[in-house]
Structures are given as C-alpha cells and as structure tokens.
Amino acid sequence: MRTLRVLEHFTCLARDCPAHCCGRWAIVADPEIEARWRELAERTGDHTPLDSITSVDVEGRSRRMLTKGDDENCVHLQPDGLCSIQAKYGHEYLPETCRSYPRMTVSGKAMQIKTAELSCPEIARQVLNADPAEALFAEDAASIDAFSTGLFSAETTVSAALDELTNAVLPQARFPLNLRIYYLAKTVADLAYRSEQGTLDEQTLWNLCKAPRQGLYDANLALKSGHLKVGAVSDEFWRLIAGLAIEVGVMDLAGTQASVTTLRDAVADGAAAEIHRQIVELRALARSELLTRFGAGLQNYLTASLMNRGFPWRPAEGNFVATFMNAVLPFAVVQLLCWLRSADEVLDEGVLLEFIYTTERRFSHADLVYKILSRSPVLLDFHRAPHIYLEVC
Ligand code: SF4
Q1: Closest Cα to residue 97, out of 48, 33, 54?
Q2: How many Cβ atoms from other residues are within 10 Å of residue 69's Cβ?
C-alpha cells in the first residue's frame, strides 16, 4: 500500500473553498444513500433530499444522479458555500461520492494507492508545497513483497520496473525536469516497442529501468550538444495541447491579453507550425522563472498526476504509453496556461493552483484524453514522440 502523505493533513476548506467539489459536477446517488434518504423521508416527512434524485441517460445507461440547479451546481449547494444536507443531517447523509471526495484509491493488481484528487484546491495546494526532499507517497513495506507471493504477472513486473524507474528519475533535480520527463517517455516507448516485437524479457526490462543516472547524464549531454533534437511532431503536439485547452474551457483562465487571442486564432486556423512558433516564443520568456519558483512543486504535481491516473500500477487496458500521456497532457496544458499568463504578469502561487485544480477538474473524465489522442495518432507513435517531452517544461 502507498499513501499520499499530504492526506494526513487534509482538511476541507468548506465555505472558504474557491472551487466547491459539488459545483458543476454530476453527482451519483448511490443505492445506499437513496435508501437512507427514503427512510429519512418516511421518518421525518422531509422529501427534499429524495426528490433531488433523478434518472439520467448516460451513454445509453440509466443512472441515478442528483439534480443540478440553473447555475449547474448541485441543488443542495447553498449560497454560503456549504451543503444543505450536511448542515441539516450530518456527514453520514451525504452520497458516497461527497463523503469520500477528494480521497480516491487506485487499485492495481499488485499495488493499492491511497491518493487524492488534484481537482480539490486544498489537495493541489498541499501537493504543490510538499517537501521535495521527502517522497510524496509513503510506502507500506509489506505491500511490495508481492514478488515473493507470486502475485506478479508480466504486466505487474513491468509496473514494478517502471515504478522503480519513475521514483529514481523524477527526484533527480540536478537534471532539467523536461529531460527527466523525456527520459521516462523514451523508456516507456522502448518497453512498448520491445513488448510488441516479443523481445522484452525480464533481464532487458530491468536493464532498461535500473540505474537511470547514466542514461540521464548521456541524454543531458546529447541535449546540450544539440544531438538530441525536437522533431516536426512538436507542431502537432502543441496544436493538440492548445486545442485541448480551448476545448475543455481552461484557455480563458490564462487571461484576455493579445497572446491568448493570437494563439486562439492560430488554433482556429489549424496552423500547427504557427501555434508552435508562438508557444516557443512564450516559453522562452517564462520557462526559467516558472521552474526556478515552482520547479519542485511541478515535479510533485506530475508525480501525483501519474500515480492518480494509474501510471505505472494500473495502466488503462494495459497500455503504459497512453496512461503516461494521460497524465502528461494535462500537465502540458497547465504549463501552457502559465506561459501565457506570464506574458502579462508575474505568476503567483494562487494562479498556478487555479490552473492546476481547474484543469484537473476538466480532465476528470478518464477517457477524455484517450478520445483526443485518437484524433492525433501520430502522438501515440512513441518512437517519434518522446522528444516532444523535451518541450514540456
Ligand atoms: S474541493 Fe476540496 S476543499 Fe473544496 S469543498 Fe471539496 S473537498 Fe473541500
């Protein structure tokens, strides 16, 4: 078992929260809470909670959900920012989703991770400020003994190797963050390729994942000497990221200045090379300040985002490449927002946090990134794509 350390200190901001979890989200009425509200209605005559449940068609399936008001918020969210059900009847009368949020569990075949949603402003703040000298997730030693209990399959062996690699690479602050992300991406690509070719044996796997320092060193040297270059696929990558920011509605957070308008126009024209040119220009102005001030926090954010999305312990349909990208793409969107905002003003922590929790909230549907990636299959061709990650930070 692994646990996100900051959960220990988590306290809900309640009425002071800048982005209530019951705002705008569809909340499921689980069978247990429906039964409890029915019993409440019979006992007290208060039908308000029960009557707020409605049947909604979700992709052809009928689901029991809480009704939303005209403002798109849950009908029980009061103007003072508190929940009327919690205020009147207490925590145990909340639906399961509301009771557990932001806590979540990622259950892999050989590892269970107790973590929390980065869409919660307080969790995002604590993750951003967690001490980078300490591992973000605390490990229960007993949980990783699965090798000796025979729990490990081919997939979980790859998970364990990638886990070791990720834990060794991400904290290597002496190498730039973009190089660390690139190195992870490249290794995941190599593993996927060898696995497809049927040439991935256990020895090769661990050789690729163990002792990454030399690999990072070599990659850094190649980058500095110009041997490691970003390819043409970057145009497509940034077209996708800028398009994603617009599609999920977070581009507005970056502001209304000229650079945002110009980028929007380029996205509308589908001008990938122009989008890339504009982003390179913005990044040249903002990158070093962002990393100097928030580099450790961004590293924490990426670490939590990878783990929350199942990398490497619960890869979606066994696909480590897509699972990795599922975490890195929202991260790239956040960075783009930072670069855009920095063109106008000095970025402060509050703004960065808003970018993170809002972006995470908009990307909360697990399959959104996968759907979008299917429109840009070139980005899943990881042998061409790892270099794009040099551009991310
Ligand atoms: S988003 Fe987080 S801090 Fe805000 S109300 Fe929900 S649990 Fe509390």
Answers
A1: 33
A2: 11
Residue 271 Cα to ligand 1 middle (Å): 39
Which residues face 3 on adjacent strands?
Answer: 114, 138
Q: How far is CA 51 from CA 37, 55, 137, 305, in A?
A: 9, 11, 41, 37
DSSP result, 224-244:
HTT-S---THHHHHHHHHHHH
- Provide residues with CB under 6 Å of ligand 1: 12-13, 17, 19-21, 101-102, 120-122
User: 103-107 and 112-116 as β-strands: parallel, antiparallel, unpaired?
Assistant: antiparallel
The pLDDT tens digits for 293-315 are 999 999 999 999 999 999 999 99
Question: What are phi and psi for residue 133, nearest 5 degrees?
Answer: -75, -15
Structure tokens at 24: 């705008």
Strand 61-66 relative to strand 137-139, pairing: unpaired
pLDDT at 147: 46
Highest mean predicted confidence (pLDDT) among 37-41, 175-179, 312-316, 345-349: 37-41
User: What pairs with residue 232 in β-bridges?
Assistant: none
Nearest alpha carbon to residue 223 among 176, 270, 161: 176
pLDDT of residue 232: 63
Report which listed range, 63-72, 116-125, 151-160, 250-259, is most confident: 116-125
Cis omega before residue 312 (within 30°)? yes
What number of other Cβ atoms are within 10 A of residue 323's Cβ? 24
The mean pLDDT value for 156-174 works out to 91
**pTM to 2 decimals?**
0.90
According to the per-residue pLDDT averaged within each range, which of 10-19, 115-124, 170-179, 235-244 is highest? Answer: 115-124
Q: What is the C-alpha to C-alpha distance for residues 92 and 298, in angstroms, rounded to an integer?
A: 36
CA of 20 to the centre of ligand 1 (A): 5
> Which pLDDT value is given to residue 312?
94
Does 387 score more than 80 pLDDT? no
Ligand 1: which of 6, 16, 20 to mutate, judged by most atoms within 8 Å of the beta carbon? 20
Domain boundaries, the chain: 22-100, 151-393
Beta bridge partners of 153: none
